[in-house]
Each structure stands twice: as C-alpha cells, then as structure tokens.
Target: Pyrroline-5-carboxylate reductase
Amino acid sequence: MTKSSGNGFPDSTNLVFIGGGNMAAALIKGCEKKEFIRKENVSISVQTEKSAQKWRNQGYQNVFTNTLEMLDKYPTAIYVICVKPQVFEEVVSSWPVNSRPRFIISVMAGVPLKTLSAKLPFVSGNTTIIRLMPNVASSIGSGASTLCYEKNEKIDDQASSIEYARKFAECVGTVEIIPERCFNAAMAIGGSSPAWTFMYIESLADGAVAQGLGRAEAKRLAAQAVLGAAQMLLNTDSGFDIETQHFALLKDKVCSPGGTTIEGVRALEKNGFRSAVIEAVVAASKKADDMAKMMEK
Ligand SMILES: NC(=O)C1=CN([C@@H]2O[C@H](COP(=O)(O)OP(=O)(O)OC[C@H]3O[C@@H](n4cnc5c(N)ncnc54)[C@H](OP(=O)(O)O)[C@@H]3O)[C@@H](O)[C@H]2O)C=CC1
Ligand SMILES: O=C(O)[C@@H]1CCC=N1
Model:
C-alpha cells in the first residue's frame, strides 16, 4: 500500500510550484518543516537561471526555467500557482492541454476563480481550483491565510482536495475558509496589512527616536509592543474574548484618566488615524476588484 504522511495523500504526491519567489519559498519551507512534503516531491519553475540555481543550491533537484517542460513532466500533480497576476497569461500560454492536475491552488491576488477556470478550460470542469491568500509572515510560520473555492458536488472527492489545501496552509500559520465574495477584503487585511504594520512600527520607532531614544532600542520595543498587543487579542489568558468583546475594552485599560495614552489617542484621532487605516483596507480591496475586472477582458 502507498504510504501517506497524514496529509491524506500518498507521500509520493508531487507538488508543482509555478513561480518560485517569496510566497513559494515561504510555503515550500513551511510545509517541509512540518514534514507535510519532502524536497524530492517538490518541483519549481522560475523565470531566470539565477533563481533556479538558488533553489538547486538548497537541495531541490526538480527546478525548471521552462514551465511547459515541468507541467509536461508532472501532468497529474497538485499545481500551486505562485507567479504575479501579470504573468498569469504567459503561464497559461505555456500550459500543456493534456495536463490533468489533481487540483490547483492559486495564491495570485486579484485573479478570481471564474477567471482561473475560464483561462484554464482544459483543466477546469472536473478539477477543483482553490484560491489561497497567504502573507509574508508565512515565511516564519506565522501567516494569516484565507482560502476559498467553489463547491461542486460533481467533482470527485473535492472534500479531500480542500482538506489538503487547508492543511497545506496551516503549515505556515492560520487559515480562514471564506466565500469568494469577501476574498479581496480579507486579502487586504491578511495579505497586505503586514506592509502597513511595518510602517506603523517604523513610525512608532521614529517618534521615540525624535524624543531621544536610541534607534535599536526603539525598533525592538516598537515591534515587541505590537506583538504583545496582538497576542492579547488572540490569547484568552488576557481575559479578552475576540469573538464577543470590543477592542476598545483593551484600549481603555491602557488609557489612564488624565494620563499619557489618552493624549496619544487624541493626537491619532485628530490626524485621522482610524480613517487612514480603513481607507487603506478599502483601497487594497478595491484594487483587487479592479485587477479582477481587467483580467476578465
Ligand atoms: N508577497 C506577498 O506578501 C504576497 C504575495 N501574494 C501573491 O503571490 C504571488 C507571487 O508573489 P511573490 O512570491 O511575492 O513574487 P516574487 O516576485 O517573489 O516571485 C515570482 C516568481 O515567479 C517567477 N516567474 C516569473 N515569470 C514566470 C514564468 N513565466 N514562469 C514561471 N515562473 C515565473 C519568478 O521567477 P524569477 O525568480 O526567476 O524571477 C519568481 O520566482 C503573487 O501573485 C502575489 O499576488 C499573495 C500573498 C502575499
Ligand atoms: O501587494 C500585493 O498585490 C500582494 C498581495 C497581498 C500582498 N502582496
């Protein structure tokens, strides 16, 4: 009998990554660390020989600079699309018509399921296509991913594919399975917000540096303060229940009457802090909506 390592699929199942950049690296390394996959079952296609060599130097042997050649070699593997959305059309053009992947996971922002199906007519129909939106913290196993797919009872054993994708995403952090109509909004928080959080932490440090604190101390302190605050929201040991309680409960605990923090709250509100953050989420989400519309053309 074929051995299985608990992911529901035989150990010999090949995972084929189209694109081998930051996201592919985070996912591959996270899955390997959790022994979900092994190097010998991973194939990667990249654009440049330089990137291919980087992967080979890390012990990956199945590395290609020609996607068609790779997909030809693994016509029934699990495919993970990890290229930029702008490159997707090019990838489609080098997709062999006889490939029959077990299922497909796409991490591309702004490329909806219906576009993926329409652009890959020869593989869709009886092939589950899953959208997964990981984030940069996946590279250290602290990602916050979202996943969506279209339920189709005609597809054989679709539930196993979804379960595999869920476990795959869990190798690099948490995963929320959500309807596609909310996917771009979730992407703005899960996928994009780490960039804004880095900006926020940088600004905290800048403020303290302006007031005389050393740069290194300010950076460490700011990062740890943000981490601790996030952990209080997620860890019930803080007495906070994220399902039922309002974030302001914790904010109010920090704001002593007549104290320092409330002065900072006042300054933030005066400068449109919350509105700026809300608008950033809406802007990122709308950009993904626009990208999806462009893709339809
Ligand atoms: N960065 C992030 O935080 C997140 C990104 N995403 C999504 O992940 C996807 C990838 O992003 P990211 O990993 O950051 O991008 P990168 O630029 O790091 O990686 C893109 C990869 O695609 C390869 N590539 C380019 N053209 C081709 C081609 N024709 N055939 C095969 N491979 C090709 C590149 O090769 P080479 O290395 O040789 O240039 C590179 O390895 C995007 O669609 C993005 O929307 C999703 C969530 C978060
Ligand atoms: O900026 C982007 O388009 C990608 C998707 C989410 C994070 N990075």
